[in-house]
Structures are given as C-alpha cells and as structure tokens.
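Hey team,

Filing this mostly as a record. A colleague (T.K.) asked me to run one chain through the structure pipeline before their review meeting, and I want the input and output archived in the tracker in case anyone asks later how it was produced. No errors, nothing strange. Just documentation.

Input sequence:
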Amino acid sequence: MSLTFILTFWLGAISVGIFPIALWLLSAQRAVLVEWQITWLGRAPLCLTIVLDFLPIVFMSVICLISSSVVQFAGGYIQNEVHLHRFLHQILGFVLSIIIFVFSSNLVVLLLG
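Output structure:
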C-alpha cells in the first residue's frame, strides 16, 4: 500500500467520522471547552484553551475532506517525483496548523497554529 492511499483513507475517515459528532453538538446545542494550564516561564501561567463546537468541527471535516482529495490527486499526478513524501508531510503540517487555528480560542493557541 502506498502512503498516499493510507493518507487519503485516514483523512476521508476522519472527515466522515467527525461529522455526526458535529450534528450531535448542533442538536444538543452544546459546546465543550478544554483548557490546559501550563506553568511556564516562572510564575506566569499559560492557558491553552480549545473550543469544540458545531462550527469548528464542521470546518475540520471539510478541511480533512479537501486534504484527502489533494493527497489523492497528488498520488496519481506526481507519483514518480523524488520528494513526494516531503510534499505529503507539508500537506499534513498545513492541515494540522489549520485545525489548530480553527479550534483555538485564545491568542497563544492561535499563534501556535
């Protein structure tokens, strides 16, 4: 099995699998707030906050769907390139940064994304 097939499968599975969670959050009108407090640089606390709501989860589903399409296209179009793995790692890094950006709720997490 090629790496492009595995990435396409998992990104598509995440896209399809996460969407019912978004629908449940919409129907229940709920949001989940996850907060980590990290003591960093002496006594200054650093709080990393992530909001799990309907809209960010739908955006994550769309991001994973589009990324799986890009990976599938890249697998067929540039399969003989020397640096295909580097390109796929860059796509995954971009997807991770966009997901962090979408779920962020404060400036520190936003800058990390």
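Quick notes for T.K.: The chain has a mean pLDDT of 82. The chain is about 65% helix and 15% strand.
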